[in-house]
């Protein structure tokens, strides 16, 4: 089978890229190991995604936002970070737009909407239940082989297959990889007091806790713990879990009643040494696998979609080769420029706030009081507040896609 573009991974990043490039009329195949039912109607996975204004704008341009029910979108007015019992907080936002920092939407809701945005496109095909087991890069095309023995050749291969990207490995691209030995537990809870639409995070001794606002009386509890402790917590029955959460959150939110089981994510951060190779590019988590603490993984995934599609859409529209090396090199430079500071800033925040040795504790206290001057805090704030200045080109391409596809 031949196609112009093959995207490995129909997660939110792969689906968004397929939608962005579809306006060119190019033939695109998405390949994912998950079955069609899991792609079309993903089950709740505990992840509540904090979206920036830029990401909301990108999702609007991609025709994904319209497919999300307004009842599934929750206000995020401000974020506050605390160190242990200290009353001082590092504050982000509220932003200039609507007085909000952004909003919260479940990962499964975003995935479902992104799938719906591509499923009826004539030039996009989704091959579900298909695992890529090998790939071969030639001068004029890349060939991937699926577990059922099928071959697909393409002018351009996209790796959107998670932070543990098989495509990245097969292309011989290395990655900085930090296995943190901790797991993040996430689940919905009913709370006894109002969260004021503020996301709150506490770096406590041996644990990091966060509470993300999900409308009236509901929130997402987020706990980062050593993996063995996380496994023990996951086994608790609902009532015992509620009591344990209340104890760990020191009763700040009154009674806590679990509304879902806790989902566990072992924490590994990754940053690919290269984002492109001959006839290939990496996007989403395959390029940059962020620590979730600053909530930027998917926001950067959408940035990778924006940067790559702006480079190769004009080429596809002219009938050119989408694997144009100069365009891919520009994509790499742009995405590295945007993602590297935020990746390093996030890692420095995690390092500073989870180090319980006395010098780090003193540095934390000082940094909280000088919060407005911290370079790491500024890099994160800049990303959150970044005006959606790059909307115009993407909007233009999606409008032309809608015209062409009559949607
Ligand atoms: C607890 C938690 C909280 C988070 N909170 C936020 C937040 O608030 N804000 C934010 O922006 N981000 C957040 N993130 C990050 C966000 O969830 C990810 O960045 C995003 O889901 C990555 O999307 P992706 O499409 O790149 O990869 P994935 O969602 O990992 O999708 C990859 C796809 O590739 C497929 N695949 C893998 N290997 C193969 C193969 N060999 N062949 C075929 N298919 C394959 C998989 O089945 C999968 O469907 C959070 C993450 C976690 C864990």
Structural class: alpha+beta
Cofactors, ions and other ligands in the entry: flavin-adenine dinucleotide
The fraction of residues assigned to DSSP E strands is 25-35%
β-strand number = 20
Can you name the CATH architecture of the domain at 2-67 and 114-178 and 270-353 and 387-405?
Answer: 3-Layer(bba) Sandwich
The CATH superfamily of the domain at 2-67 and 114-178 and 270-353 and 387-405 is FAD/NAD(P)-binding domain
Radius of gyration: 21 Å
Q: Which CATH class of the domain at 2-67 and 114-178 and 270-353 and 387-405 is shown?
A: Alpha Beta
Query: CATH topology of the domain at 2-67 and 114-178 and 270-353 and 387-405, what is it called?
Result: FAD/NAD(P)-binding domain
**Distance between termini?**
28 Å
Low-confidence stretches: 387-407
**Average pLDDT value?**
88
**SS field, number of helical segments:** 13
Pathway: Cofactor biosynthesis; ubiquinone biosynthesis
GO molecular function: FAD binding; monooxygenase activity; oxidoreductase activity, acting on paired donors, with incorporation or reduction of molecular oxygen
Protein name: FAD-binding domain-containing protein
Domain FAD-binding: 3-335
Annotation keywords:
9-stranded mixed beta sheet; 8-stranded mixed beta sheet; alpha+beta; single chain; binds flavin-adenine dinucleotide; 407 residues; 20 strands; disordered C terminus; globular; FAD/NAD(P)-binding domain
